[in-house]
Design brief:
The protein is an alpha+beta fold and 337 residues long. The protein has eleven helices and 15 strands. Pfam families: ART, WWE.
């Protein structure tokens, strides 16, 4: 029987929160991996659990951290049991621009520059060794960011499936990518820079650590290259664009070459209403029925099932039209995939 990456199964969705010291105070949710680590320690009846930047004291129900002078500071924590699963979109996933801040789009290409560079480095490795390299890369990146425990948990999840099928490994990658953590943020930050010559050294530094993970995550498109591989219809993504960025989209839409690409992985939703609630711009992306899949439904592997569609790197599109909706006070950018 193949190994599977698993998370402790609890009777309901558990969420842990910490309270700010503001007036009035606010409650913030821990990241997905932190929630798992906290709940595992709680279920094991431990007195405390140490995370990357704080520790949780279960006896006194507080989070403890140190200020800049190494003086301990404590704030309340709480545990909530969710008996129903709210259908939500995470603003952080949908408000971050799918493009470089200074360059609204990358030139259209059939291959991801970031993935090609990574594959050149790992071309002679067997698949099993690639999974080990992926796990080690995540651990290294987490260490640089001060997120060692979070990164090691994700690395361990991958190592559990290294002897599994390619589909099992991809499912694990999709689940880790969908989780709220540093992983998807740092990966996409690097991939959005590939068309910027001034930032070349930045994204190239990420090839050895996060590049192998990107290759495995993208592998499903190759494994299941068929028209039914992804959703066919209209998907949506909100964004915050500057006036200059919107103007550039308008200019390209009316040019002789309206084709461009998103170089990073790009989360989208089939739910227009929720996607439209973020930012000043809504991307309206039409997926043609005759085209091979360049998007994948990752909702079965995610706790956020409204974020269904993940566009593959180097997703090529035509900018069809840009319009401003006076009633919604929002720009609509129509893209044909």
């Amino acid at each position: 029987m193949m190994a599977e990456a698993t998370v402790m199964q609890f009777p309901a969705r558990i969420e842990w929160f910490w309270q700010t010291r503001d007036e009035p105070p606010k409650w913030y949710r821990y990241s997905d991996v932190e929630n798992i680590l906290i709940e595992e320690a709680f279920q094991a009846k431990q007195d405390q659990v140490i995370l990357d930047t704080v520790q949780i004291d279960f006896v006194h129900q507080v989070q403890i951290c140190s200020d800049n002078n190494n003086n301990p500071q404590s704030v309340p924590v709480k545990r909530e049991v969710k008996t129903t699963r709210d259908k939500i979109l995470r603003e952080d996933r949908f408000i971050v621009n799918p493009i470089h801040p200074d360059m609204p789009f990358c030139h259209a290409s059939t291959d991801s520059i970031f993935l090609v560079a990574t594959k050149q480095q790992i071309s002679n490795m067997c698949f099993k060794n690639t999974v080990e390299i992926v796990a080690e890369g995540i651990a290294q990146e987490g260490k640089k960011l001060g997120r060692q425990r979070e990164a090691q948990w994700m690395a361990n999840e991958l190592l559990k499936v290294k002897n599994g099928s390619e589909e099992e490994i991809w499912r694990c990658c999709a689940r880790l990518y969908s989780m709220e953590s540093f992983l998807y943020k740092k990966l996409n930050e690097a991939m959005r820079l590939v068309d910027d010559k001034k930032q070349r050294h930045i994204w190239q530094q990420q090839i050895s650590t996060l590049g192998p993970f990107a290759v495995l995550l993208d592998r499903i498109t190759v494994m299941f290259e068929r028209p039914a591989g992804g959703f066919r219809g209209i998907i949506y993504r909100g964004a915050n664009l500057s006036k200059d960025q919107i103007t550039k989209f308008k200019e390209i839409a009316t040019s002789n070459n309206p084709y461009r690409s998103f170089q990073a992985f790009t989360s989208c939703s089939r739910n227009r209403t929720k996607a439209e609630s973020f930012g000043n711009t809504l991307f309206i992306i039409t997926q043609p029925v005759h085209k091979l899949s360049t998007n994948n439904d990752i909702s079965p592997y995610s706790d956020y099932d409204e974020e269904e569609e993940l566009l593959s790197p180097a997703y090529r599109f035509r900018i069809r039209n840009v319009e401003f909706n006076v009633k919604k006070k929002k720009h609509y950018i129509y893209l044909d995939g």
